[in-house]
Amino acid sequence: MIFDRLGELFAAKIRQLRQRQARPEPAREPNWRYFEGDARRQLEADRADHTAAIRGKLMGAKADVRNREEWWRSHSTEEFEAAKQIIDVARAASREARDANVFKRGRLLRNAEQVAGEQSEKLRGAVPWLEDTDIPADWDQANRFRMRTTKAIHDHDMQPRTRLVAELERRLEQAERAESERPSPEQVKALALRMAEQRAQAENPTQDTKRPAPSGDEPLDLSEPEDWGEASPFESRQAPRTKADLLNEIRQRTDRLTGQREAEQRQIDPWSAQPPQRRGHGR
Fold it and tell me: Does pTM surpass 0.90?
């Protein structure tokens, strides 16, 4: 019958629509080839800008080193001045022992050794990071020790600046080598894809690229054209919006069809009904 066929068509359409909503839409890759040239030029420009930025930082770091060296010619740090004063006290004792005559030299040498030990303890407190803090009691060795210590304090103060210069020189060499090479196809494609996605979002900002998975309770969209092989009788009618509405419609039509069939059966076979009972006296 027609209504059985309608119910089957409705059920088939519901199944196909549910399957279509449950299947994730295949991700389509944007047309990145259109942006391939722009991506390559952008990568080359970025590399050039990166190299120029490192070169500028290197020039500034070298200028900082020169300015600090100029400052050292007329200034010094507290550690530098403290170390010189401590070492000079030991140097004075060792010089006195060196210039003494034969009768005083032994006593003054022992005094120089004692003073050198005391000043070494003070030097360790004034410059705790200094590795060699043992001041010699000999005059010549004490002079060489003073030169080494003052140079170590100077280099320690300059080390952060000189280390930065060395690091920037290494990075600049790497950047210049990378700038001379062509961008790889993978890098070009990755940037071109980002450009294509940004263009698509700019043209359609309301597009939801990440659609949530259907839960099964969403209203069915029956407006999409679909080839059923034959025209559906309900395409020109107002379609129910949910599965419950569709099932209720089918149930109502089934009930009406059942009632019509019973009525037709009574009209076709009137003798199937029980004959009326006659009242009165029988013969």
Answer: no
